[in-house]
Amino acid sequence: MTGQKNELIITRIFDAPREHVWKAWTEPEQVMRWWGPKIFTSPSCKIDFRVGGKYLFCMRSESGPEVWQKGIWSTGVYKEIVPIEKIVFTDCFADEHGNVVSATHYGMEGFPLELEVTLIFEEVEGGKTKMTLQHMGLPAQMKEECRTGWNESFDKLDKVLAKV
User: Fold this and answer.
1) How far apart are CA 30 and CA 47, in angstroms?
2) Helix 143-162 × helix 18-26 angle, to 10°
3) CA gyration radius for the chain?
4) Is the CB of residue 45 less than 8 Å from the CB of residue 35?
5) CB 101 within 8 Å of CB 94
6) What domains are there in the chain, each with its CATH number?
7) Is 61:40 a contact under the CB 8 Å cutoff?
8) Which of 27, 95, 114, 132 has its CA 20 to 30 A from that of 88?
């Protein structure tokens, strides 16, 4: 993974086996336990986990702008899957039916219609997992906000994995 200006890279170590971190990304009931920054919940998640399959995630907040309270949907297509090691997928804003929409649908500007996410899962000593996220195509002005959102989500994921 190389550094590019429209790329966000986050590496986290989770105190959980790689299989558990993998399932947290691939099983809808697991994703719904941690998806979204700290003030968001995930009321809906659909995953067709295969190359060419699609996902549809929703995050919703009780507070904040009205659009957050209605829910922000994202969708994409799985492009590459190496079991327990790597997932590559597209990332798009969507409506509740999974149709791709512009970021302006949610009051945001400057996002391309499609971004790409790569996740790498590596075993580390002590039964832990090193997970690296690479989010490509982000608008420069949104990079730090996205970093905060991902890290808040991963904080929630860390707590979920601690309970497994």
Assistant:
1) 11
2) 120
3) 15
4) yes
5) yes
6) 7-162 (3.30.530.20)
7) yes
8) 95
